[in-house]
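ESCALATION

Customer reports they have been waiting on this structure for their group meeting. Please prioritize. Original submission:
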Amino acid sequence: MIALQHAAMATRFEIRSAHPDERYARQAARAAFETVDRLEQQLSRFVENSDIARINHLSSGESTVVGYETMQCLRLADLIYADTRGAFDVSVGTGFESLELVPDEFLVRARADGVRLDLGAIGKGYAVDRMAEILEDWEVTQVLVDAGYSSVLALDPPSGLGGWPLTLSRPATPTVILARLEARQQALGASGLQKGEHIWNARDRAPVRSRPAAWVSAPRSVLGDICRVAGVEASAAAVADALSTAFMVNAFDEIERCCRQYSGLEAWILEGEVRHFPTPESRTTT
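Update from on-call: job pushed to the front of the queue and completed.
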């Protein structure tokens, strides 16, 4: 087993590979990490003159041209913003709906002052998806890719395993295992308050405090279909991470609705005890 790490986007990206040729696997991983570094220059609000930094400086009526990947992320964020009824909001309540996206021209236009974007989870998840594609191009497919454990994409598992073993642990006491997964061609997104009150409820304009953690998992193909609805390339890790962030905010009935809408989508919400969605009742009636 080869485990390689790379720091970018204020987190640690890791590739675990069971490829038999370690030297070749390291070359493939280097190519994947180079992709992350390139994406950070477009997607990070902290990089001067990045696409996101330029958007954040727009006044009403102004516009800017962005790169292909930035537009992909924004279109996907727009879809999930609508699907989660505003619970996932890359503008953190500053007015995402005030931005006009013109995909054919790669143009973003502001209809109001003060819109501020932070792609956060969706950007890191998108990077994980692109890393996985690079590794597949290199035919390195027995791979698990993650970004700080919050965006995880499992491709094929090592020989002899049914899937990559993943655990969902209680944030305050990580030795307490809440659920175990065997992941194969599957994405997992995780959000929580381990790093403090950094998840914002845009509806209430206040930080999330009552829900310590949320996890979302689904087959890569299911989440890829969600992306195709938005007319963007399949980005399973980005969707899973965005939904886990939304589910830190959404009411239980909204989470249930979303899990019913997309077959194979599961969520685990920690609020006192762990709630697993879709509930058994909904599984038998849909």
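Sent to customer with the following note: The longest strand covers residues 173-183.
Escalation resolved.
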